[in-house]
Specification:
The protein has 307 residues and is of the alpha/beta class. Helix content is 47%, strand content 19%. Strand 1, helix 1 and strand 2 form a beta-alpha-beta unit. Helix 8 packs across helix 9.
Length: 307
């Protein structure tokens, strides 16, 4: 087993390889080290590798460290990565520029290894704690899967990405547990909660791609977002969900459609485009779900959405 995989990651950015070697030597026992001498690659590396902290030189050819930091503080994916500037410029005015650019700390050269390790340790620990709080805030307290807040943010981000690509499909599935109020009335809210937990687990088990998201939308409603998925693939995913929940065989003696818990679903796929927003596809998915419920429940209604 690779012990390095469990260590926090530090990305070192400096155009001088000797400086990188000095920093890496001081930190390599406690951190997984990534590095680059090219400041124009930092934003890409930060998004792809997701380091826990970045040590960033200020004076570099092509793009200085302040501009690199400003770039990192734009996108949601890199905004929360702490940046420590490492530079020979120790004057107060330069420190002020660094903090204004979004840095969390400022270390001057020549490097004192004990001070470097202490500063890095402090900010990595803060980052880890913030990440834990962020995950908890994005998680549904009952089922453990992402909550409505996570769903909205993910859907918005995937919509924007699909618009940039220009011809990429985005599919949404809205899911409702049939006659759930009757289930609660018959079996009690404790069993109702247990039922929702089982369904959430079954839904999550059908998600084969890391790019897909299943979330609790609210109450007995769930939703899936499937990037790069045309209607045929989205219908296939809905059918997998239906089979997974059916296989649970959760008794529901007061259901009007089956002896076990069933689902109604609305499925839509769309190619997002400029001039439209994500609410357009959400509205279609919601309408299709309503049609499935009005049409007798325990069924899937679907449509290709044209914008």
């Amino acid at each position: 087993m690779d012990d390095m995989a469990d260590k926090p990651t530090v990305l070192i950015v400096d155009d001088e390889t000797l400086n990188i070697e000095i920093l890496a030597k001081s930190l390599s026992n406690d951190y997984r080290i990534l590095f680059t001498t090219d400041p124009t690659k930092v934003a890409y590396l930060a998004e792809q590798k997701e380091p826990d902290l970045i040590l960033l030189d200020v004076v570099m050819p092509g793009m200085d460290g302040y501009e690199v930091c400003r770039q990192l503080k734009g996108p949601d994916s890199t905004r929360d990565i702490p940046v420590i500037f490492v530079t020979a410029m120790g004057e107060e005015k330069y420190e002020a520029i660094g903090f204004d650019a979004g840095g969390v700390d400022y270390i001057t050269k020549p490097i004192k290894p004990f001070l470097l390790r202490a500063r890095v340790k402090t900010h990595v620990e803060l980052k880890v704690k913030k990440d834990i709080l962020k995950r908890l805030a994005a998680q549904d307290g009952l089922t453990g899967i992402p909550n409505r807040r996570s769903l909205d943010a993910f859907l918005k981000a995937e919509w924007a990405r699909a618009v940039r690509q220009g011809d990429s499909y985005l599919a949404v599935i809205f899911i409702d547990v049939d006659y759930f109020k009757k289930f609660n009335d018959l079996y009690g809210h404790h069993e109702g909660d247990h039922c929702l937990k089982q369904i959430a687990c079954a839904l999550a088990s059908t998600m084969e791609r890391k790019t897909d998201l299943v979330a609790r939308y609210g109450g007995e409603e769930f939703a899936c977002v499937l990037p790069n998925t045309a209607l045929k693939g989205a219908i296939h995913q809905a059918e997998k969900i239906q089979k997974a929940v059916s296989a649970l065989r959760i008794p529901h003696l007061h259901s009007d459609v089956a002896e076990c818990v069933t689902l109604s679903m609305g499925v839509v796929s769309v190619v997002p485009s400029k001039g439209h927003d994500v609410e357009s596809v959400v509205g279609v998915a919601d309408r299709l779900l309503y049609e499935a419920k009005r049409g007798g429940r325990n069924q899937i209604k679907f449509a290709q959405c044209e914008l």
